[in-house]
Amino acid sequence: MEKINIHLDFLKSALDKTEIDSALKWINDQNKAVEVSVKKVDFKKLDKWYFSKDHAKIAHETGKFFSIDGIRINTTWGNITEWDQPIINQPEIGFLGFIVKKINGVLHFLVQAKIEPGNVNYVQLSPTLQATRSNFQQAHQGRKPLYLEYFKNASKEEILIDQLQSEQGARFLKKRNRNIIIKIDGDIEMHENFIWLTLGQLKSLMQIDNIVNMDTRTVISGISFGNYNKDILAFSTILSKEESYQNMFLKSTLSMDESLHSFEDIISFMTELKSTNDLDIKKIPLKDIRNWEITENQIRHIEKKYFKVIGVEVEIGNREVVKWSQPMVEPAQDGLCAFVCKKINGILHFAVQAKLECGNHDIFEFAPTIQTLTGGYKNTPKNSLPFLDYVLSVDKKQKLFDTLQSEEGGRFYKEQNKNIIVIAGDEISEELPSNFIWMTLNQLNKFIQFNNHINIQARNLIASISFA
């Protein structure tokens, strides 16, 4: 009964239609209140960071935070089976957490206006707590993150969600964070760069470019709204008297019936791919990675593709440490992440691909229908990437979500990707390419509850889906 109440509390918060104008004004005020300076610099000017012997990697003098390593990849999957690249190696598990509380009977999320050095517009809405282990152990010799003690001391009864979730598999080497939501009942001290928002408000703000950061989106994606049989959902449909796209999403989220594939079918689909394909990752010195070059201020591909590693000096007025420098990853171009949906058996299904990325913990993760982050999708030859031509040319009326969303601004420099959700009709067949499978939102939500199954790009799109 308690779990049902939690699901209903989350759903009530997601359906809340409270206005967002005051939140947007508050964000704008937060931007004006903080001085920010981010400058690109040569690697030799990075304070406390250094190239290790023989340019093997870039590391911090404490051995904490992260390093930029070189890797050589060999795989049996895809057209390109071997390549080298730099990658962010950050083995420690950090906190991405929300404190939630009922205000006027509705669950509200304690949201932080946080500036990351790589954000395209400085302030974005972040979880209550967003910190690496090095941060909250104060390896930077700065202040402890605000509200950390609530998460460290949370009781079992207070924890509503607690998951380990992966980060970008093409940029991080087996990186994960603890995604957690805790509920409090009493009063809490409010700091000037924090605000209470409902889940519905957060989802509405996601419809605007670069307002809600990646870490907020990944935590929200892990929320379950419960499972209901078709009779209960049929009754709720009668009550609503219309089938809007919001109701279609909600039905796909709540329905435990009428999916095209069973949970066991989906597990077998992924097991087959994992058991018949190999992914071998070998660390190599940065100076030895093929087709990349190291200059005074960047590590870049010789064809200027994919991404590059740069150095930055940062000053941000309201951080635990107000001045520091670090390496960052800068993309070569904006990417595209898109889900194509289609009604099957009366339920909205999502075309999900099994995608191999070199930093994945277990070879494959479920990804959006289209995920092209390291290649220029606008210049991709026609008919070379499934569904890309369709999404780029589809009628605007079928695009239910179309925004630019930032990647993680603490590691990625001004990286934003086009995020799109399309509802298809008969023009898209139920037959899919061999590494794709149809899944309902309910099934996607179930897989999110387990580690390393749904990748962060898919989770970000799922988080953006609004029911109100």
Beta content: 25-35%
Terminus-to-terminus distance: 25 Å
Helix-strand category: alpha+beta
Global mean pLDDT: 92
Principal-axes shape call: globular
Oligomeric state of this protein:
single chain
The largest β sheet comes out as: 7 strands, mixed
> Which stretches are low in confidence, meaning pLDDT under 50 for 5 or more residues running?
none
Gyration radius, rounded = 22 Å
Number of discrete helical segments: 12
Helix share bin = 10-25%
Write down how many β-strands occur, each being a DSSP E stretch of 2 or more residues. Answer: 24
Descriptive account of the structure:
This protein has twelve helices and 24 strands. The strands form five sheets. Strands 6, 7, 8, 9, 10, 11 and 12 form a seven-stranded mixed sheet that branches. A hairpin with a 7-residue loop joins strand 7 and strand 8 (123-126). 23% of the residues lie in helices and 34% in strands. 45% of the residues are buried. The protein is α+β, with helices and mostly antiparallel strands.
Short description:
The chain is α+β, with helices and mostly antiparallel strands and about 475 residues long. Helix content is about 25%, strand content about 35%.
